[in-house]
Specification:
Elements: E1 2-3, E2 6-7, H1 23-31, E3 36-43, E4 49-56, H2 63-81, E5 85-89, H3 92-101, H4 109-119, E6 124-127, E7 139-140, E8 148-154, E9 158-165, E10 168-176, H5 185-200, E11 208-213, E12 216-218, E13 221-224, H6 233-240, H7 243-252, E14 257-261, H8 262-274, E15 279-284, E16 288-293, E17 298-299, H9 335-341, H10 355-367, H11 371-395, E18 399-403, H12 409-426, H13 428-433, E19 435-437, H14 441-446, H15 448-453
Parallel strand pairs: 5-6, 8-11, 11-14, 15-18, 18-19
Antiparallel strand pairs: 1-2, 3-4, 3-5, 7-17, 8-9, 9-10, 12-13, 15-16
């Protein structure tokens, strides 16, 4: 396999996608001949900084390869950690190239606009003599079980709430709601408050509230979330950004609370069930939802939106309809990945069916040991093996917990077994340091809403 003059050789190739080029392998091959130092740093909220020192070739004949490598590197940092200002050192041409794509009408306009909106700051590319050093501010969260707590989990099709007293769930309920199709934020607010009051009715008092929700949250504020997709921007700014904070304080007054991404809560639930830290949770469902708990058991505050992180360097990789970019995780580690591969295996899907129904059709074939379905899951397993090595390089995590509908049943078992084989054969250093596993019964007992309840620390 060759792209921009960079050659990549693989032992394991997805049977239904032989042109797949793992991005990490492209990066490794690129860096073998790149000698010109370049620094990239990305500024996030509250002065936090992601920092990376790397190399390019810096020659006219390798300009295309250099631009591609830097493009994918910056995009990876942005969606892994988030940020609104990119600092570049060592090469003026690199800064100029990034300005040409991170702008209105540029190739990375989606990322440019999204980050500016989330961080409420214009997106900038700045050339500097030397990049700032890395700075993080992880928070110790979760694992607090004492007292009377509420855990609320806001999903796209149902909302769950639990009342937890000294680590024991005394009440749980699950209510169907329709947040993604409602444009009135009062609908969402009323639903959240109803859930909180329902849980509170089963405890003598409320000491703390933890919220797990899809979206990007900074300082407990809802900066972007698909649950509020139909809410107009003016109403979003006025009523949604602080919606969870308002719902909690309006209902219970001045109690401790925490609002974080549901992927991070899944990773926290995994850490609680494993009784360990350094956990990356990957949920393969409608999209690829990811969370991370660091070595010290803390939530990092990073975006961890790996659905938008590139994993495939092939120029004809599948395009994501929302971001407009190609080769990103969402098209490999979600139901879209299954739907993409099924026709290549000779499986005809009902085009009038929903994505979830198409996934169920392939899962049914897999349950019946259909060899065509097995090829689909084997291909995803090869994708995953190569990509887990990349995620290990990015995070250094010891555990990866694989969740979501795509990982259920026989298909999930085949994905995991195939990924492990790829890791063992091609990435022995990652295979030795990383354990990938499916959730066990202990994880299911912890649950998303109970893990959310454990987020806030009680006032002393």
């Amino acid at each position: 396999m060759n792209r921009f003059g960079i050659s990549v050789e693989l032992k394991h190739v997805p049977p239904l996608d032989p042109e797949f080029i793992p991005l990490m392998r492209f990066n490794r091959a690129f860096l073998e001949t790149a000698k010109k130092p370049v620094g990239i740093a990305v500024e996030r909220a509250d002065g936090q900084m992601a920092s990376c020192r790397t190399f390019i070739h810096g020659t006219p004949e390798m300009a295309e390869a250099d631009h591609y490598y830097i493009n994918r590197l910056v995009k990876t940092i942005l969606w892994m950690k988030g940020g609104f200002k990119v600092y570049v050192s060592g090469d003026e041409g690199t800064a100029e190239y990034l300005r040409s794509i991170y702008c209105a009408g540029g190739g990375q306009e989606f990322d440019w606009d999204y980050m500016a909106s989330v961080f409420e700051h214009p997106f900038e590319i700045v050339l500097v003599d030397d990049i700032p050093e890395a700075k993080d501010a992880p928070k110790a969260m979760g694992g607090h079980l004492e007292g009377c707590r509420i855990g609320f989990d806001a999903g796209g099709s149902d909302r769950k709430v639990s009342a937890v007293i000294d680590g024991e769930t005394v009440y749980s309920e699950e209510v169907v709601w329709f947040p993604k199709v409602n444009s009135d934020p009062d609908y969402h607010y009323d639903g959240i408050v109803a859930a909180l009051k329902s849980a509170a009715g089963h405890m003598p008092r409320v000491d703390a509230v933890g919220v797990s929700s899809a979206g990007v949250f900074i300082n407990d504020r809802t900066m972007n979330a698909s649950l509020f997709l139909q809410v107009p921007k003016d109403l979003y700014d006025k009523k949604v950004k602080d919606i969870y904070i308002r719902a909690i304080t309006d209902t219970f007054g001045d109690v401790p609370y925490s609002v974080i991404n549901d992927g991070d809560v899944s990773a926290l639930a995994g850490a609680m069930s494993l009784d360990d830290s350094s956990v990356l949770g990957i949920a393969m469902g409608t999209s690829e939802a990811v969370g991370y708990v660091d070595e010290a058991g803390r939530i990092t505050g990073w975006l961890n939106e790996l659905a938008f992180v590139p994993v495939d360097a092939h120029p004809d990789a599948m395009r994501d309809e929302w971001s407009g970019d190609i080769g990103c995780g969402v098209k490999y580690f979600s139901q879209d990945g299954v739907i993409k591969l099924a026709p290549r295996a000779g499986i005809e899907l009902d085009e009038s069916a929903s994505p979830a129904e198409k996934l169920k059709a392939v899962q049914k074939l897999m349950a019946e040991d259909d060899p065509r379905a097995a090829k689909v899951y084997e291909s995803i397993g090869v994708y995953l093996g190569h990509t887990l090595a990349y995620y290990y390089q990015l995070y250094g995590c010891r555990h990866v917990l694989l969740l979501g509908r795509v990982m259920s049943g026989k298909g999930g078992d085949l994905i995991l077994a195939t990924a492990q084989r790829v890791l063992n054969d091609e990435y022995p250093e990652a295979a030795a340091g990383l354990k990938a596993e499916l959730p066990d019964e202990k994880f299911r007992r912890v649950g998303q809403s109970m893990a959310a309840a454990s987020l806030p620390e009680l006032k002393k």
